[in-house]
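Study the following:
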Amino acid sequence: MPRRPAPNKLWICVTNRCNLTCPHCLPDSRQAMDNEMDRDEILSLIHQAHALGVQRITFTGGEPTLCRDLLEYVRVASKGGAVRTYVETNAMTIRAPQLLKLRAAGLSILNLSLDGATALTHDGFRGAPGGFEKVLDTARAAGAIGLDVRIYCTVTQHDIEEAHLIPQLLDDLGIRVNVLTYAYFTEIGRGSRNSNLSLPPARWKKFCDDLEASRAHWEPRIGKVRYEPAFLRPDEVTHYRDNTSFNVHCIARERDYVFVNPEGEIFGCSVASPTENSLGNLRSQSLESIWYDAPGWAFFEKRKGCTGCPVLAFESDDGRDPRLDRADGLIPICPMTQFPQVENWVYK
């Protein structure tokens, strides 16, 4: 029996250190972890990924631009352009000369965080004076040198009143992106201490429905617009299943990608990374052995859909799925479910 394909994508968290303390931060980044991987360990991981056949590698954090060896990681990971490389940044420390160096090193895609359509909202949310203008300036500069620019907005009670204005803002400024993604705020990581930011499911559903109605107008002008469904009506779950051959399985079950935290722990998805559900550690096992043979994968493979998720607890003690009992009729799904299969449904 042939072995399964290589991971669709490898995420490498090069440091937990960050210059901001955003209230929705999934890994709760601020200080470096006690025993973060060093340069040689990360380079070894990159080479193992190449040997396994990984074609997309993302560098994240924390804030990856605070890592002094990031340029080398991108250069080695890109493998002369044969592998697509990504960097996720809050744009606070990155400047035009560094963008040029990253592009020359082989960087393919720059992911930027923008949490609002005004400086007051974005900067206030992230505690980042001047951050709003830095994100927009970086998007403009990165696009000008041929980088694929993508913007990611987490929608919360703080910014929902203006999040839908971001396409107009980008259009007014003449900034094109490859993808503008809206994400639902989840109470994981630092978000677990900021539940006041959570949106009522019905409000998020309306926000997504409004986006769906306006995508045809905005996409020719600024780039693709997508969103993480997070909540579906029963008829949408049926559409999901019948038209995408995708029964709301999680990416860990499908083994879509692997996420590596700064201390070398491997997870089946980034949502699991703040938990203790590690599949193994690169300091005692190879990436290949974890990918093919880690016993922890069996937990996800035995489950159906999102039920039984060790992170989101979508299954009750008696085995029932409590999502089906919600009075609002909406069925919550893992926010990570949107990639890549749901994207094909959203862009039907």
